[in-house]
């Protein structure tokens, strides 16, 4: 995640092409590792279950943040880029390019996962392909309001943690661990509700391959995380007392 400890200016940013490459790779890893575990390793009685999927998402963020965070800040999530820009930690002019790189990375990972998963006898996209959903498409049947509240609140919490552990008063070098553990906790709470998004790129990519209701319900998994991230970005200075 964003390891800068002060407000970033355009001049202080690394070369954009390198940042976009890092965002592509980090998001690719996140989606392949997280949704790949859900699709390939959590579908049978002896599979990893909710706990395994939660750990997979958390671990991919830790690994990606250590590997690619020094290059791009390690957002790997449009909501993170928007939240950090709202908080003044990231330049708005770079947000569209970051989001584009994140979406391409997520879609590429889902395409690779589809190729792998299609090699299993009986595989069907109609089984969900780790898409997010509410109502009949929620893992435990939760409706639209609890799904929206879950995604909104947990994304806001995620951003507040990211902002806090990357602040100038935070211990250096531990941010990826704290962020990865937070994402694991978020998944433990919300997999039964929505299959956990808190990341529009993670939601969009598999939905594009599944189609149907996965696309129809996608609005929630874009809107709620973005709103949660914006609220967190607006709250960060009043809570922490930090100034530019």
Automatic annotation (TrEMBL):
<dbReference type="InterPro" id="IPR023271">
    <property type="entry name" value="Aquaporin-like"/>
</dbReference>
<feature type="transmembrane region" description="Helical">
    <location>
        <begin position="99"/>
        <end position="123"/>
    </location>
</feature>
<protein>
    <submittedName>
        <fullName>Aquaporin Z</fullName>
    </submittedName>
</protein>
<comment type="similarity">
    <text>Belongs to the MIP/aquaporin (TC 1.A.8) family.</text>
</comment>
<feature type="transmembrane region" description="Helical">
    <location>
        <begin position="48"/>
        <end position="69"/>
    </location>
</feature>
<keyword id="KW-1003">Cell membrane</keyword>
<dbReference type="InterPro" id="IPR000425">
    <property type="entry name" value="MIP"/>
</dbReference>
<feature type="transmembrane region" description="Helical">
    <location>
        <begin position="143"/>
        <end position="165"/>
    </location>
</feature>
<keyword id="KW-0677">Repeat</keyword>
<dbReference type="InterPro" id="IPR022357">
    <property type="entry name" value="MIP_CS"/>
</dbReference>
<keyword id="KW-0997">Cell inner membrane</keyword>
<keyword id="KW-0472">Membrane</keyword>
<feature type="transmembrane region" description="Helical">
    <location>
        <begin position="214"/>
        <end position="236"/>
    </location>
</feature>
<dbReference type="Pfam" id="PF00230">
    <property type="entry name" value="MIP"/>
</dbReference>
<feature type="transmembrane region" description="Helical">
    <location>
        <begin position="172"/>
        <end position="194"/>
    </location>
</feature>
<dbReference type="InterPro" id="IPR034294">
    <property type="entry name" value="Aquaporin_transptr"/>
</dbReference>
<dbReference type="GO" id="GO:0016020">
    <property type="term" value="C:membrane"/>
</dbReference>
<keyword id="KW-0813">Transport</keyword>
<keyword id="KW-0812">Transmembrane</keyword>
<feature type="transmembrane region" description="Helical">
    <location>
        <begin position="20"/>
        <end position="41"/>
    </location>
</feature>
<dbReference type="GO" id="GO:0015267">
    <property type="term" value="F:channel activity"/>
</dbReference>
<keyword id="KW-1133">Transmembrane helix</keyword>
